[in-house]
Amino acid sequence: RPFHVEPTNIVSVNDDMQRVTDEASAMNKRIHYYSRLTSPADRALIAPDHVLPAPDEIYVYSPLGTAFKVDSCTDGYGKNSSLVTIFMIWNTMMGTSILSIPWGIKQAGFTSGIILILLMGILTLYCCYRVVKSRQMIPLTDTSNWEFPDVCKYYFGSFGQWSSLLFSMVSLVGAMVVYWVLMSNFLFNTGKFIYNFVHDINVTDLVPGTNGSNKVICPSAASDHPPQNGTVMFSSGNRTGFELFEEWWDKSKTVPFYLIAVLLPLLNLKSPSFFAKFNVLGTVSVVYLVFLVTVKAAHLGIHLEFNWFTENEFFVPEFRILFPQLTGVLTLAFFIHNCVITLLQNNRNQENNVRDLSIAYFLVGLTYLYVGVIIFASFPSPPLSKECIEQNFLDNFPSDDIMSFVARIFLLFQMMTVYPLLGYLARVQLLRQFFGNAYPSLFHVLILNLAIVGAGVAMARFYPNIGGIIRYSGATCGLAFVFVYPSLIYMISLHRAGQLTWPALIIHIFIVLLGLANLIAQFLL
Q: Which UniProt keywords apply (predicted)?
């Protein structure tokens, strides 16, 4: 009997072959997108042949040039499961802003702080959804390797290209400045802990604080005393040597300059791909912070005073006029809009993008809420006031606190590995625009890096307030990428299709005005 092939089998084979072809084409386009971020000679963001996804593994490229390898989480064709996609978005969005959330809640008031975290999460999620849809509204056959700045260039021409570059640089340089301030802080406290431990020196900070094994301090109340290093020695130790150490190990006067010797050479490397291997430290740091917050709250208990009708020094305000300071921090805390298209286009089921993005935002908001509310509620008031909550909540724990010491070590090492990656991205985006090459010469790169490092050192020396830096940079870059561009692009697309309605116009103009008001309020309050 002759061999017979059913037509349905032919269709099935053809479908499978087409599926493989489409997946390979999509992977090549993604690789092509990241290769456009570097010069031809620089392979930091170019995927070599041996990392193409095999049936049992996948490499997911993030905008920082890092590669996440996830085993047994794909369908064999280089696509991610929803679980992996959600984790990627959560991991990318979680950052240094988490350290300032408790301070932001204090500035906004307890109840309004919780409400603002929820509302800003919903608003930024909606704008993020508009970013994802913006590329799909472009009537071109091939936009698969476009990111949001490419969409801005399509709709607004050279203005969109250069303005997106400007605001992208604001977010990158702002993040690098915050990193420098935090690294100076963590290095100072780590060095102080090690010195006191090695020399068997018992000290007590000249700042108000609680007693007991779980001590909490109020550094802001010691502004009339010698800053940071002012201590009184109670037991053994060479006082001359101790005073010399305090003179040369100062949080703002010396330590920020010591970091230059380590980080400036790393910034000048042509390829920072080695540091991408430490990306997992970011996840470990966040998980450990959640653990630290939980343990501290279990020992400290809940301290909230809501007495409306009796005068109380430790009264917790539920609403405060300074609430825009929290919205500025949250704009950066929920910021992922300039790279969300790339993260979602690897999703196996594209129809689940909205669901997965919403779940990721929910988890991010839940993490911020948990850390912020628990730290605020467990802060011991009395005897201290909630006004003592610092812009970096780790500063409310003394340098000799073991759990805080471990957290600072984790964060210091993680930030020292991420900092060169951020500098590399800043170099690629800026120098390629002006010189057509990400590494035109060592002189060009050195001048750029000196300017970035100088900004970080200056801030760590004269304005070491990470909450202020985060809210200013967040409100600035968020104005463009979160509020203005997604809304304008959506309205222009509807107008060209003849589908723009008055409700849609009013709603999105209101979103633009919210972003503008958010930025202006940062400079008024």
A: Amino-acid transport, Disulfide bond, Endosome, Glycoprotein, Lysosome, Membrane, Metal-binding, Sodium, Transmembrane, Transmembrane helix, Transport
Count of domains for the chain? 2
Nearest CA to 82 among 70, 98, 100?
70
**In this structure, what token pair is assigned to residue 405?**
């010491």
CB neighbourhood size of 21 (10 A) = 10
Given a cut of 60, whether residue 12 has pLDDT beyond it is no
Q: How far apart are CA 203 and CA 289, in angstroms?
A: 26
Does residue 477 contact residue 167 with C-beta atoms inside 8 Å?
yes
Q: Which residue has the tokens 């809304």?
A: 487
Q: Is the peptide bond prior to 382 cis by the omega test (within 30 degrees of 0)? A: yes
**Which one-letter DSSP state was computed for residue 214?**
S
Q: DSSP characters for 440-496?
A: S-HHHHHHHHHHHHHHHHHHHHH---HHHHHHHHHHHHHIIIIIIHHHHHHHHHHHH
Domain end marker among 35, 69, 103: 69
Cα 234 from Cα 359, distance rounded (Å): 53
Residue 178's H or E segment, with its range, is helix 148-198
Residues 363 and 483 in one domain: yes
Last residue of a domain, one of 69, 99, 127: 69
Kindly give the interhelix angle for 280-300 and 353-378, rounded to the nearest 10 degrees: 40
Q: Which whole number is the average pLDDT over 114-143?
A: 88
Q: How far apart are the first and last CA of the chain?
A: 87
Comparing C-alpha atoms, which of 522, 418, 406, 408 is closest to residue 474?
522
Closest-CA residue to 518 (of 473, 486, 479): 479
Q: How do residues 267-297 score in pLDDT, each as one tens digit?
A: 998 877 777 777 777 888 899 999 999 999 9
Q: What are residue 60's phi and psi, to 5 degrees?
A: -110, 125
Cα–Cα distance measured from residue 329 to residue 316, given in angstroms and rounded to the nearest whole number: 21
pLDDT tens digits, residue range 315-325?
Answer: 788 899 999 99
Is 248:242 a contact under the CB 8 Å cutoff? no
Q: Is 236 among the domain residues?
A: no
Question: Is the Cα dihedral 207, 205, 470, 258 positive or negative?
Answer: positive
Q: Which domain, by its residues, includes 34? A: 3-69
Please report whether residue 307 resides in a domain. yes
